[in-house]
# Entry
Amino acid sequence: MQTSFTAEQLKNKDNKSSEKIFRKCVHCGFCNATCPTYQLLGDELDGPRGRIYLIKDMLENNRPAHKDIVKHIDRCLSCYGCMTTCPSGVNYMHLIDHGRKHIEKTYQRPLIDRITRKFLSLVLPNTFYFRVVKNLVLFVKPIKYILPKNIREMINLMPIKFPKKTLPNLGVYSPKKNKKPVARVALLTGCVQKVISPQINEATIRLLNRHDIEVVVSKKIQCCGSLNHHLGKADLAYSTFQQNVTTWYDEYLNNGLDAIISNTSGCGTTLKDYGFILRDDKELKKKAKKISELTKDITEYLYDNVKLNFISELNSKKKYKIAYHSACSMQHGQKIHKQPMSLIRKTGNEVFDIPEGHICCGSAGTYNILQTNIANKLLEKKILNINKINPHFISTGNVGGITQIARKTEIPILHTVEIIDWYTGGPKPRSLTNL
# Structure
């Protein structure tokens, strides 16, 4: 793709990076074939190729965003399916992030939209605010039908109660029996996840400790920053990135870390991108690069580094039919797909790819709140494809996908690490009690 940025424009680091990405695009349109919104809406501007043209036009011409451009950019799920399909290696993730940042700087959204986004930006990364909102929702729920659609969707997504934690809040979780750890890792416990699904972090910690791996959980780290990053709120995201990079790098230098574990694939994708995001920050770029290098999804880490001790008695009992939902941020963002499926197979159960598994379920961070119509249509398609397998339960690697899919199916859905924890000596997951 030909570009026409001026030398002055290319002094801007984001323009310079995006210009290189634009030049890789050969207009082939393969990306549209795997884009969920293009498949649903059939509009060129609702596919990656069209959005690339819109972003390029804004940036090259220093043009403020207007409502029509914003509509098409906002409809992007950031599922990154286009990046898996693209034969030219176009890093669409960095282009869409740049486009959103430009929109946030140059476009004033309608009042309700601004309030909703500000609310999400403030509440979701903060566990205290999130708990307060949950209590408020209990009072508002009976009259939700008089509220705007986005607010109703937020209410529908909010759990009525949160599960109780079974592990104490510690800074370091060490292997039992006074064994010397064979490795030391930091765990990102997430913001929303540790409130609505604490069992995911607990399964992760138990599993790692059982295999003699020490787990560090820093209380200074609350959120990965991806929510504000994808909302285009660069300053808020940067503050989080700075805190996380500094905290983990200090731990790495002072006490040693073999890896930083993410068990939420959306967060892991962002952590692995810290090196790029902070590439021109003189104080942080070296540290950020190291943090990105250390970051591993829990299934990626287990597959590559841990000899799992599966319990043979469980393998010989009932065999389950498991549908594996490959989260977009996992299969497209991190290029991880075979590892979790391979781990599940080692439990002795059958595991199946969901038909059209490359297509998003519609969760996509805050997308199912901000773009409810499209998100719900994608969810309906996902459920239809899951039902074709007729599994006993569903496994995935992202809490957003778990929350989204659970809304429209009675089939239990849980995190992959809960299954591996169970089959190596942990408790049977609560979601599978009736199986």
In short: The CA atoms of residues 361 and 382 lie 6 Å apart.
